[in-house]
């Protein structure tokens, strides 16, 4: 998702509640412990304190006129502030965080949440140029969705307002949103969330989102008493495992395993979760299946839905212990495989990179250059120095001079937008002083690999813009360096 919001401040606050009725005692919505949320009270601490905003969920840096690039590795969220966004001789502190403790209320019977709630702030930061906020989403089959971006002002309960619905933009729309298969990007400050519902533009469609299950239990298994295990159902975005870990830390539990992808469709069908135990354990009588109503899954908002199963020990010397969990929507199509989860011990799931990273085959994290370790403090691994921008200030200025003027062949900024797949609503760029400048900011955030400039050179060459090729070749780093 890419959007460019014309605001001169960072905003932040959000509120949503997804309740469970008293009769649903088998499962609940666990709110994740507090993190940096963007509320004014939260952000009142001095930003330069060593302990402030240094965690996998939040990072901060001092912004200068040279611009900056920040990201939260665990959540694949990123913030790119272009050169010139801050006035000369000024410095401002910037925060990027994933909000996990707010409740988000957005009207709409069939609306579902697709991204984490991402905040950049604080609220009184002044900027002169829009910039790019990138975050992941869990939507499957994008053509079946109608996407909307929502923003919270951060006042009181934090009322959420619709910023834009894709396909319904006009010349006054304050944001440009580009939904990609792998990521959602935005140019904006504030607290934002991406939501969606089944598209109805041509015919009734059935939207589908990706979820994932995590099984959690006690740190140590009691010798003679029963054991309660919890199955969390969360959006399949980066950081899902961390959300479950935070919930379990509050009650002294740990994450034991995670499932394959769970595909959940907007078809009003409930979610069935079955558990099977072998090797000295069994579930309580009639307690091996739980059914979660469709609305509790589809309309869940920024809270961690889970159900619990109670297991009883049957034998103490069994060594072939195994728990199998399967989840699927009732009356699901035969082509949809159930989500599976298996553990063979009560050993906590490793937190190393191989197990903790998002593993959906349709997702890919952004590649960036790391910061040197000399004098680095905790949390600085999330920040990219401004000299790591792919385009220099001079090169960008030259490219804008080349591509901003319209050409008879159409091989100007409009063709560049088409080649970069950000041409869904060209009227947005046309209203800017430099359309090329906006497009290149989006390119900078989306293309952090080492061969990005080479790819841009090839695009300009295919456009027949050899003047732009010459500009880019001047800044290209030789492959042997």
From TrEMBL:
InterPro entries, A to Z: DEATH-like_dom_sf, Death_dom, UNC5A-D, UPA, ZU5_dom
GO cellular component, as recorded: membrane
Membrane topology: Single-pass membrane protein
Gene Ontology molecular function: any one: netrin receptor activity
Domain Death: 410-476
Gene3D superfamilies named among the record's database cross-references: 2.60.220.30, Death Domain, Fas (1.10.533.10)
Keywords: Membrane, Receptor, Signal, Transmembrane, Transmembrane helix
Chain ranges of the ZU5 domain: 57-191
Name of the protein this chain belongs to: Netrin receptor unc5
Native species: Culex quinquefasciatus (Southern house mosquito)
């Amino acid at each position: 998702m890419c959007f460019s919001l014309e605001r001169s401040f960072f905003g932040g606050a959000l509120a949503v509640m997804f309740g469970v009725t008293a009769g649903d005692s088998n499962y609940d919505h666990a709110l994740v412990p507090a993190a940096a949320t963007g509320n004014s009270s939260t952000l009142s601490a001095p930003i330069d304190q060593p302990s402030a905003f240094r965690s996998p969920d939040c990072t901060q840096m001092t912004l200068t006129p040279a611009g900056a690039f920040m990201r939260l590795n665990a959540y694949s969220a990123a913030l790119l502030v272009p050169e010139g966004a801050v006035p000369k001789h000024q410095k401002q502190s910037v925060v990027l965080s994933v909000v996990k403790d707010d409740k988000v209320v957005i009207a709409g019977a069939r609306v579902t949440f697709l991204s984490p709630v991402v905040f950049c702030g604080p609220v009184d930061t002044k900027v002169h140029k829009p910039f790019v906020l990138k975050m992941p989403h869990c939507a499957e089959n994008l053509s079946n969705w109608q996407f909307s971006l929502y923003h919270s002002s951060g006042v009181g309960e934090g009322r959420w307002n619709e910023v834009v619905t894709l396909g319904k933009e006009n010349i006054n729309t304050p944001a440009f949103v580009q939904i990609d298969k792998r990521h959602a990007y935005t140019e904006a400050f504030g607290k934002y969330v991406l939501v969606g519902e089944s598209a109805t533009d041509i015919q009734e469609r059935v939207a589908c989102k990706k979820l994932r299950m995590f099984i959690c239990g006690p740190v140590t298994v009691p010798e003679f008493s029963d054991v309660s295990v919890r199955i969390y159902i969360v959006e399949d975005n980066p950081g899902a495992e961390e959300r479950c870990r935070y919930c379990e830390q509050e009650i002294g539990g740990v994450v034991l395993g995670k499932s394959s992808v769970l595909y959940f469709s907007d078809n009003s069908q409930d979610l069935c979760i079955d558990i099977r135990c072998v090797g000295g354990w069994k579930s309580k009588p009639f307690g091996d299946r739980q059914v979660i109503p469709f609305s509790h899954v589809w309309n869940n908002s920024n809270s961690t839905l889970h159900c619990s199963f109670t297991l009883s020990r049957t034998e103490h010397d069994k060594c072939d212990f195994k728990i199998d969990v399967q989840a699927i929507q009732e009356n699901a199509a035969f082509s949809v495989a159930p989500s599976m989860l298996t553990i063979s011990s009560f050993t906590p799931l490793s937190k190393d990179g191989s197990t903790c990273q998002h593993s959906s085959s349709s997702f890919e994290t952004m590649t960036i250059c790391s910061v040197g370790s000399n004098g680095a403090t905790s949390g600085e691994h999330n920040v990219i120095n401004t000299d790591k921008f792919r385009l220099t200030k001079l090169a960008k200025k030259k490219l804008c001079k080349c591509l901003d003027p319209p050409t008879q062949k159409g091989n100007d900024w409009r063709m560049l937008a088409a080649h970069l797949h950000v041409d869904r609503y060209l009227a947005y760029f046309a209203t800017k002083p430099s359309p090329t400048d906006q497009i290149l900011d989006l390119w900078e955030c989306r293309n952090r690999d080492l061969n990005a400039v080479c790819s841009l050179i090839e695009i300009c060459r295919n456009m027949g813009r050899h003047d732009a090729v010459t500009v880019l070749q001047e800044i290209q780093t030789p492959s042997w360096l």
